[in-house]
Here is the input.
Amino acid sequence: MDEKKDIKTKLWGGRFKESTAPLVEEYTQSVDFDKNLYAEDIAGSRAHARMLAAQGILSPEEAEQIIQGLDQIQKEIEQGTFIWQKSLEDVHMNIEHRLTELIGPVGQKLHTGRSRNDQVALDFRLHVSKCLSLWQKNLVSLVSVLVEQAEKHIDTILPGYTHLQPAQPVSLAQHLLAYVQMFCRDCERVLEARKRVRVSPLGAAALAGTTYPLDPGMVADELGLDGIFFNSMDAVSDRDFVLEALFIGATIMIHLSRMCEEIILWANPGFGFIELPDAFATGSSIMPQKKNPDVAEIMRGKTGRSVGNLISLMTTMKGLPLTYNRDLQEDKEPFLDTHKAVYMSLQIMARMMEEIKFNARAMNRALKEGFLNATELADYLVGKGIPFRQAHHITGNIVAYAEKKGVGLEDLTIQEFKQFSEEIEDDVYMALDFKQAVGRRETPGGTGPQSVERQIKWARDWIRQKNGGSV
Ligand code: ARG
Here is the structure.
């Protein structure tokens, strides 16, 4: 870096006599990451220029020149010919500097009635809003894939777990539909948060509003935003919209991570419930037999970072006095990082769930070995008039017996059953049947096939509504 660079090239250099120390320049610059906001910065500037002209602050010709210059800059950035300069600090000053190079002094009029404080807030709101739309779209796609799989597996039965111990048999569809609920809630959260994101802060200027007769409503309309700020000091210092997005992003990642945890467990030969598609697994460089669930592990790993990103910005915010403080520059990297994780993970999970192979035989084996019909036997005994506590105890004894013998409850003979309770008859085998056990749970939201069908119908309606009426 050139230490003797003339301080007067800085857009704020008027009152300065000495150059910024190179280390400070590198430390304070944000262009490395806020150049990701270039499209929003240009869109915001176009809207601002049009509004300035409409209010008679710029002439129509001046606004036109500015807009053409901005169009040219957008092209240069997208073609990769734009030269980003760290000495110009951030995306805003890089673009404004180039604008003046291209169109001369008129370029310097663009910033009339505006501060970087309301400018950056606007850019970031537009950016977060764009990202939230992508999350929404990809959440709906993932829900669609899960519903498709659920539909195919209403009759596939596997152990449901509590404490990671085999508990009761459930339909695989029910298991997948639990995640559908999580991702639907995430999507609703995205839509709710978007309303608060899509508010224009432009016109707040540095902190106090401005003496120019601006029309902030026109800028908001131009940009398709839903409203404008109510208080200029709040407008330039509020980052709740990022916090909300980070919370939602972290929650999406947590849901994905829980799913990853199950994928990792289920791919373990001890479970053997799934086979991962080759395209979503990796081998070991030393152990030829291995097929590792690295993709799910990386996703689970990235979740930690996404949670950290939320905590990081919450911590930054907690001590800030009104209004804009440069600390706020620290809002971008956590969000950009969370966005990348959420956006990629949602797409990858959808593809992985589309191609995953479920192994019903292994699930059935686990049902037998885990005595997942023990509750059914206890309920059966209750049906024969035995008090529940006693039925629980008798069943426990029968399970211990079968375990010792190395068989499932359904493999015991009637004579064997009768050693534990005279009440047990031939109809016990019906009670012990796993499919029947699932079929008996038709309470609302239960795992019975009719209940599952209702959930699938609900999810299909939800998807249709989110896709604007089409399937
Ligand atoms: N890079 C800054 C940020 O991200 C832009 C706003 C700078 N404003 C200022 N008054 N220095 O927050």
Strands lie at 157-162, 165-171, 199-200, 227-228, 274-275, 357-358. The chain has a mean pLDDT of 95. The pocket of arginine is lined by residues 30, 34, 90, 116-117, 120, 324, 326, 328-329 (CB under 6 Å). The CA atoms of residues 150 and 357 lie 13 Å apart.
